[in-house]
């Protein structure tokens, strides 16, 4: 009927054209609050000088308008974006996952934005991934996986991007480096085996040969040879995994001389060694064979394993990485080189000598 609302009651309101929506700017907040634009900026800048009355007027106007600070725009004026890229592979594995989370949380606490870039297959190498980081105009990139070539390192540095390498090859010139004393830990592992009375050591690693894994395996072999022992070495697969630990155990314990001590370059491999030794060969750990791992992942403390291992100082690494990513490179005379000692976590997989 004329004069009556003919709109069906269930008709939804017309959808807003998202393309026409615009972010509220600081100028609009300043006009509504009756203050200067600089007063709006100072209100949202920690530590800046602004009266409490002005602050409250600005905050009220911002809430009314739905205003949010545009950190990217601020970054452009300061020639900083606040973005820090993380380059990582094997993100599902326990250790990379722990470290990624710790770094991301500390970056957020520092007011930074973390962008995760995963290194995939052979065609998606670390150089390709670092070039993606350059496209983001990141302030810094933290490389947790892969070892970049000197050419891409120079390209990043020339474009003003800080590079922080974690447990990578420290012979590359230019980036900051955060390293673990992998060799020292390996020598300590051999010393523990010797004190336990073990004289047939072995080491299990991968064919991949990353700097950290190679340092652990090579130092263990060198330490054993220095005391007149020739350790068995098993390099299996491209990843340090539980399955590779099982496969390595089959090789070691079907050989003519079985080892009585096994140093594994990470905990996942050690779990495979322990389970295969017990369930396929009927061996007792640590009475028949002692085992030491590396990383101290959560499962290392579980009752079936109680693995003696070296702790990966995740919090310390994350703290140093974020400090380096947030700081000014120009303020340092040379790239930083930070070496951390992985502490031993003694449990029950090494027998008492």
UniProtKB/TrEMBL annotation:
<feature type="domain" description="HTH lacI-type">
    <location>
        <begin position="24"/>
        <end position="78"/>
    </location>
</feature>
<dbReference type="GO" id="GO:0003700">
    <property type="term" value="F:DNA-binding transcription factor activity"/>
</dbReference>
<keyword id="KW-0804">Transcription</keyword>
<dbReference type="InterPro" id="IPR028082">
    <property type="entry name" value="Peripla_BP_I"/>
</dbReference>
<keyword id="KW-0238">DNA-binding</keyword>
<keyword id="KW-0678">Repressor</keyword>
<protein>
    <submittedName>
        <fullName>LacI family transcriptional regulator</fullName>
    </submittedName>
</protein>
<dbReference type="GO" id="GO:0000976">
    <property type="term" value="F:transcription cis-regulatory region binding"/>
</dbReference>
<keyword id="KW-0805">Transcription regulation</keyword>
<dbReference type="InterPro" id="IPR000843">
    <property type="entry name" value="HTH_LacI"/>
</dbReference>
<dbReference type="Pfam" id="PF13377">
    <property type="entry name" value="Peripla_BP_3"/>
</dbReference>
<dbReference type="InterPro" id="IPR046335">
    <property type="entry name" value="LacI/GalR-like_sensor"/>
</dbReference>
<dbReference type="Pfam" id="PF00356">
    <property type="entry name" value="LacI"/>
</dbReference>
<dbReference type="InterPro" id="IPR010982">
    <property type="entry name" value="Lambda_DNA-bd_dom_sf"/>
</dbReference>
